[in-house]
Amino acid sequence: MASSPGLAALLLCALFTASAASRFAPADNHLIACGATAPALLPDGRRFIPDSGCASTRLRSQSPTLPTTAPNSPAAPSPLHAAARVFSCHASYDLAIRRRGHHVLRLHFYPLDSTLAAARFHVGAGDFLLLHNFTASSPIIKEFLLPVETDVLALTFVPDAGSAAFVNAIELFSAPEELVGDIATLVTPNATNQTTGLSSQVLDTLYRVTVAGHKVTPFNDTLWRTWVNDEGFLLSKESSGTRSFGGRIAYPKDSRLMTREVAPDNVYSSARSVDSEGTVTWGFPVPAGNRYLVRMHFCDIVSKAMYQLYFNIYVNGRLAVKDFDISGTTGYLAYPYYIDFVVDVEDEGMLKLAITGSKMSRPGEASGLLNAVEIMRMNKTGGGMDGDFPVILDMDYLLSKGIGEFARSLLCGLVFAGLFLVLVTLVMKLRTELKNSGMLWSH
Ligand SMILES: *[C@@H]1O[C@H](CO)[C@@H](O)[C@H](O)[C@H]1NC(C)=O
Ligand SMILES: *[C@@H]1O[C@H](CO)[C@@H](O)[C@H](O)[C@H]1NC(C)=O
Ligand SMILES: *[C@@H]1O[C@H](CO)[C@@H](O)[C@H](O)[C@H]1NC(C)=O
Ligand SMILES: *[C@@H]1O[C@H](CO)[C@@H](O)[C@H](O)[C@H]1NC(C)=O
Ligand SMILES: *[C@@H]1O[C@H](CO)[C@@H](O)[C@H](O)[C@H]1NC(C)=O
């Protein structure tokens, strides 16, 4: 009798998982609406399950966590913004992993009030610190690509001293294998060279841009990504134009490396082109002192015949590829292709990308183009995106420390109370209700 509701929840989760995937069906697909009381249905067709209602997810905490809902504001931009879960102490979501390998993790933060907007906290995945001293003062989605080599991934939320932590929604799904390669072109001030070991890195998505195209929303993206227009990042353009393509984007037959999951057709159907004398430069503000993965997407949607586009690609002011010949590389026109560059940004805090025409092209005709760009920050150490910090992410350790820690957890509650007087009364009420109904699912 006791197990049947659990089983039902598991089946329900499986059902939602199946209906959520239209073409790409990730082996793992956790879609969690934190603090919500009912499933949230997104415009892209995916259904997020309340964090209390899914058997493949377990929430553990040192002290009660708090579901909180938005004050009745007119129209929340997304159904995921209607609720959040607030943590006063360490808490973790344990997510079951069916298939090890790369996963896409998206954390949705929508501060429901000024206290949450000022909350300072840390977020870990396993023993890796993803976000250190993080503040979501305005709505933000943090996306990470990370290798997962365990059967359970613990997402741990740790309030900084005297503060609280919160999250509105969590997406964790298996990435298609072709999404992350291992080899890239390392661009250093002196030379370009091959670099390997990319697939063990943790990536933090900073920019995803479709060049000269309309914004692509999760509805139209194979992995529910958002691609924004490049206009805001243009630094200069000479002898250039915008292009769009009504034809069909083709993919190499049976290619396991280039598929629609790498990027959707929409982003390849538009581009900015340069003629043989032209230059287009983009600039992306990035935190200095980091290493970046820059993925530039190309698809020759302008040439009428093969071997007509030759152009140069500059990464951070350095010539990274000279006389790049797309059709010669892919063997066809309108076939998508991308190049991964790895580059260190030391002090300027601006990552510049440029394409310039080549003398090898015919004067007055398109010489080169760019269709899309993704910029991802790479992790600094094996311990965290920003380096190593003494933040305890191990819930088993914390929860096993016993009664002495109970006092600590009360203290957390008290500090919390200073910040959330009203909400804490709710906690007490909730606690009693949960105790009475025997439904204490977080302990
Ligand atoms: C987070 O930042 C605050 C203010 O800058 C600092 O006092 C605190 O020590 C930091 N916490 C950690 C764990 O680094
Ligand atoms: C790069 O070039 C500069 C000056 O030309 C030189 O001082 C430096 O040692 C070079 N670095 C590497 C890694 O070769
Ligand atoms: C490129 O990398 C290889 C292997 O790491 C190294 O042996 C070689 O010297 C590098 N070339 C340049 C130009 O830095
Ligand atoms: C999806 O893409 C089509 C074709 O580009 C476009 O007409 C439509 O508005 C897009 N839908 C959304 C929700 O972005
Ligand atoms: C990034 O993290 C991975 C896995 O946690 C680790 O193998 C890799 O060495 C880290 N990168 C750096 C530059 O420390």
From TrEMBL:
**Presence of keyword Transmembrane helix:** yes
**Where would one find the signal peptide in this protein?**
1-21
Span list, region Disordered: 58-77
Q: Which domain of life is it from?
A: Eukaryota
A molecular function (GO) held by this record is: ATP binding
Q: Does the keyword Nucleotide-binding apply?
A: yes
Q: Where in the cell is it found?
A: Membrane
A Pfam cross-reference name: Malectin_like
What InterPro entries does its record include? ANXUR1/2-like, Malectin-like_Carb-bd_dom
**Where do the Malectin-like domain residues begin and end?**
33-377
The record describes its membrane topology as:
Single-pass type I membrane protein
Query: What are the alphabetically sorted keywords of the record?
Result: ATP-binding, Glycoprotein, Membrane, Nucleotide-binding, Signal, Transferase, Transmembrane, Transmembrane helix
Q: Where is the composition biased (Low complexity)?
A: 63-77
Cellular-component GO terms for this entry: membrane
According to the record, the segments passing through the membrane are: 406-427
The cross-references to Gene3D superfamilies, in alphabetical order and at most eight, read: Galactose-binding lectin
State the name under which the record lists this protein: Malectin-like domain-containing protein
Lineage of the species this protein comes from = Eukaryota, Viridiplantae, Streptophyta, Embryophyta, Tracheophyta
